[in-house]
Amino acid sequence: MSQRMFTRRTATTVLALGTSAALLVGCSEPETEDTIATGTTGATSEQASSAEPVTITVYTSEPEEKVDEINAAFMEANPDIKVEVYRAGTGDLNARIAAEKASGSIEADVLWAADAPTFESYAEAGDLAELESVDSSEVIEEARDEENFYVGTRIIPTVIAYNTSIVDEADLPQSWADLTDPKYADKLVMPDPAVSGAAAFNASVWKNEPALGEEWINALGENNPMIAQSNGPTSQEIASGGRPIGVVVDYLVRDLAAAGSPIATIYAEEGSPYITEPAGVFADSEQKEAAERYINFLISVEGQELAVEQAYLPVREDVATPEGTPELSEIALMTPDLEVVTADKDAAVEVFQNAMN
């Protein structure tokens, strides 16, 4: 597996098939019960059509506040479309989709969650429609599906984070390998791959990285890291100083830092595992045109600028990264064989659990 800088010229095709529903990658596990959220429109009466607006349903793992902001902006620009959202962790979304398929048809129009392997599995099963009118020409290749069943909407790397009030600069880890140093014993926290889809994906990436592998996972376990349920509690534990160093998705660190928490990010020298939180249209959707307009908004300049305001890295090079964050071309990312990583996920989770017990 190689490490490379994040540019279009070095893009690789993401093709990964199948995995267990509960462990498919997700990026935002909810901390509350599943919710239905509907935004409001700021459209004028002149903009609005005399006909009743079309309603689309989006299944997503996006945090509620963030998806509500996106939907409000979308409906203001598209007053003829009303968006309803079912929000849950990726595992729960997969379970819901499976249950709906078993009873007849998938009830949502858009899936916006997880990573490319998740969407490859749905595309392979025939659950996604080819995107006919989505303009992804300005989206970086790493976030595009060459068969055009989905498109990435954010770059979400997993990073090392630390409490700036507790950890001295001289003691900062700079790599995944550094986290096995005995000086970090009882100071680390990370999400549980048996619960968090993103953590399960990371476990498999690390297990299949020649420079790390099972030996690294076992050495990490010797430092007795705290295993939090998901990325949200992990970031909170770091910010509170209970465990001042941890492994977490980067946008949560920026969210907490912006709110005044003493927390900062280190992009590991070996590169960061990352997901793209794709969006696609279900083949069963009866509102494909409206659903594609929604996806076009997500990847538009306006949609990507909103994503950056929400602390995400964009999927367009003509949209700047969040303030204080390296440019896309400066962030080293891990580039595993995603087919291998997906197939080995269950085994990687078991290795991780055994190492941490």
What does this structure look like?
- GO terms for molecular function: metal ion binding.
- InterPro entries: Ferric-bd (IPR026045).
- This is ABC transporter substrate-binding protein.
- Keywords: Iron, Metal-binding, Signal.
- Fe cation binds at residue 251.
- There is one protein chain.
- By secondary structure, the protein is an alpha/beta fold.
- Helix content is 32%, strand content 18%.
- The protein has helices at residues 64-77, 90-103, 116-124, 197-207, 213-221, 231-240, 250-258, 288-299, 301-309, 338-343, 345-356, and strands spanning 2-5, 35-38, 54-60, 81-87, 110-112, 128-129, 151-152, 156-163, 188-191, 226-228, 245-249, 263-266, 274-275, 278-282, 332-335.
- Strands 2, 3, 4, 5, 6, 7 and 14 form a 7-stranded mixed sheet that branches. Strands 8, 9, 10, 11, 12 and 13 form a 6-stranded mixed sheet that branches. Strands 1-15 form a two-stranded antiparallel ribbon.
- Helix 4 (197-207) crosses helix 11 (345-356) and helix 5 packs parallel to helix 11.
